């Protein structure tokens, strides 16, 4: 591990850092650690799960408005995303340790099975509460589908080539995301939103079959009894993290729908702060084999990379979630049309990921590439923010902004992962990778839930102030429950509601831009070194 940062340590990296003898070289990572493994067979096998995980994310982004409208609980639809992310966040880092104990293949198969059952539950849900519970169950599986795939690549590919292969996996991810957005909208507008989830079940079973037949890996190095293996898993840390994130989500949701100074909001947010503090203590001093070990998390490059992806994913996913609401509530587009409108972000993401991987393999550098990527990422938010009502309205301008944000984030997500792996070393790469995915998921949860609080709070206040008459409270309630109700209103009232929605979603875009700037600043603290 790298030495701790002191007051004499320069905050911004330079080329000299790469020549520092105390910075660990990556020579031990330049050769595959599993001889004889056929990458041509393994890559397609693990790509299926990555594709499904990506498709699931954007299917929800484009169809949640229809789901909330049908169930008359539009103001609670952020839970469709955050319930999934709640368990994904908590179990994602566990998969790093689980895959070390039980083996990569068993961890991957378990994640596929749980995800498939969760998708089936989502498709059969009869109420918003049932859907939220099923989404949370699916998240337990979703946490391993991408994490274990990433760890597998690090096992078998040299570090210098790792960026290119991660770029290929990111292409699969982006393809899934590109298919999911319009497909989710198409299902919602035609045969029903439930098929957005039910259609994933047979694909999950295909993934289980392919991995079972073609993914052959050596067994874990230590053969122990099941009880001894289970005791090595940090379930206490996971339980505390679930409690902390759940309390945070409940507090933010109620703050947006009621009041920020509500007693329940204050209580849940206080509990969340205490639970997060307890989680840090448990990981540092109690857990025998913590999934977020202090020495790894506190290493400068790993911490800076993790903070960067926290803000990047928070800003990116929060913006995608609410740009579709803008298209449906303000522009009046269907779910399918709004899903197609976010495809430019996916195209930018796949281009950026592949570009970043090739650049790192060619130059052996990642520092300036990462900082530049997140600067592009932040600049991409400006047209999104300005051309959704501030200076005017332009679908082309918004699309260009989405391309830029996707491109910058695509590079950043690849280069920061390589930075983390290079800093951690071979023995810690699985845990370090899982920690990075933990920060990504926490960022996404924070971006979507804080965005929901800002949007719902702004919408509730503005509608209450601008609508008059005895039925004003009823209109406010129904408008926040169903998008279809907007079209049933008199034109004058409808204009007020649409304008209020436009102002409300701007709050989420401002949050996204702020997060993007923070991501760029955090990336400057990554150490500069050669691969």
TrEMBL record:
Membrane topology: Multi-pass membrane protein
Key words of the record: Membrane, Transmembrane, Transmembrane helix, Transport
Major facilitator superfamily (MFS) profile domain: residues covered: 42-531
Transmembrane segments: 41-67, 79-95, 107-125, 132-153, 165-188, 195-215, 235-252, 264-282, 302-327, 339-360, 366-388, 400-425, 437-455, 504-526
Family label: Belongs to the major facilitator superfamily.
Compartments reported by the entry: Endomembrane system
Source organism of this protein record: Morchella conica CCBAS932
Top-level taxon: Eukaryota
Organism placement in taxonomy: Eukaryota, Fungi, Dikarya, Ascomycota, Pezizomycotina
InterPro entries attached to this UniProt entry: MFS, MFS_dom, MFS_trans_sf
Pfam families: MFS_1
Gene Ontology terms: cellular component: endomembrane system; fungal-type vacuole membrane
Stated name of the protein: MFS multidrug transporter
Coiled coil (UniProt feature): none
A GO molecular-function annotation: basic amino acid transmembrane transporter activity
């Amino acid at each position: 591990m790298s030495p701790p940062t002191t007051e004499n340590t320069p905050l911004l990296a330079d080329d000299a850092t790469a020549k520092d003898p105390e910075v660990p070289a990556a020579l031990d990572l330049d050769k595959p650690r599993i001889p004889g493994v056929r990458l041509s067979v393994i890559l397609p096998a693990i790509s299926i799960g990555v594709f499904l995980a990506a498709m699931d994310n954007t299917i929800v982004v484009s169809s949640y408005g229809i789901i909330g409208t049908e169930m008359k609980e539009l103001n609670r639809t952020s839970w469709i995303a955050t319930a999934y992310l709640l368990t994904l966040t908590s179990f994602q880092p566990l998969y790093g340790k689980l895959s070390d104990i039980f083996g990569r293949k068993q961890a991957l198969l378990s994640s596929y099975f749980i995800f498939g059952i969760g998708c089936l539950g989502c498709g059969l849900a009869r109420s918003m509460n049932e859907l939220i519970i099923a989404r949370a169950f699916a998240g337990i599986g979703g946490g391993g589908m991408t994490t274990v795939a990433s760890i597998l690549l690090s096992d078998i590919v040299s570090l210098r080539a790792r960026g290119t292969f991660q770029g290929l996996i990111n292409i699969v991810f982006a393809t899934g995301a590109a298919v999911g957005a319009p497909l989710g909208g198409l299902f919602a507008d035609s045969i029903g939103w439930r098929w957005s989830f039910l259609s994933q079940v047979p694909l999950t079973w295909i993934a289980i079959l392919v991995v079972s037949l073609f993914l052959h890996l050596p067994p874990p190095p230590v053969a122990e009894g099941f009880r001894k293996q289970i005791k090595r898993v940090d379930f206490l840390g996971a339980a505390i993290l679930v409690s902390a994130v759940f309390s945070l989500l409940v507090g933010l949701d109620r703050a947006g729908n009621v009041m920020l100074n509500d007693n329940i909001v204050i209580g849940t947010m206080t509990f969340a702060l205490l639970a997060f503090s307890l989680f840090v203590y448990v990981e540092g001093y109690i857990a025998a084999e913590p999934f977020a070990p202090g020495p790894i998390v506190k290493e400068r490059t790993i911490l800076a990379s993790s903070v960067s992806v926290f803000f990047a994913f928070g800003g990116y996913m929060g913006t995608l979630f609410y740009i579709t609401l803008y298209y449906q509530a303000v522009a009046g587009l269907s779910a399918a049309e709004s899903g197609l409108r976010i495809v430019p972000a996916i195209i930018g993401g796949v281009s950026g990921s592949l570009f970043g991987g090739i650049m790192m393999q060619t130059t052996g550098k990642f520092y300036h590439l990462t900082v530049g990527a997140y600067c592009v990422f932040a600049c991409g938010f400006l047209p999104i923010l300005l051309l959704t009502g501030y200076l005017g309205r332009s679908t082309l301008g918004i699309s260009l902004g989405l391309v830029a944000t996707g491109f910058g984030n695509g590079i950043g997500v690849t280069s920061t992962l390589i930075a983390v792996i290079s800093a951690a070393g071979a023995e810690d790469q699985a845990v370090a990778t899982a920690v990075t995915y933990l920060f990504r998921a926490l960022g996404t949860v924070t971006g979507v839930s804080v965005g929901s609080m800002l949007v719902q709070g702004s919408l509730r206040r503005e509608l209450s102030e601008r609508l008059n008459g005895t039925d004003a409270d009823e209109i406010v309630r129904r408008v926040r429950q169903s998008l279809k109700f907007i079209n049933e209103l008199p034109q004058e009232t409808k204009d007020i509601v649409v304008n209020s929605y436009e102002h409300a979603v701007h709050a989420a875009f401002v949050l996204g831009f702020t997060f993007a700037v923070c991501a760029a600043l955090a990336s400057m603290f990554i150490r500069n070194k050669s691969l």
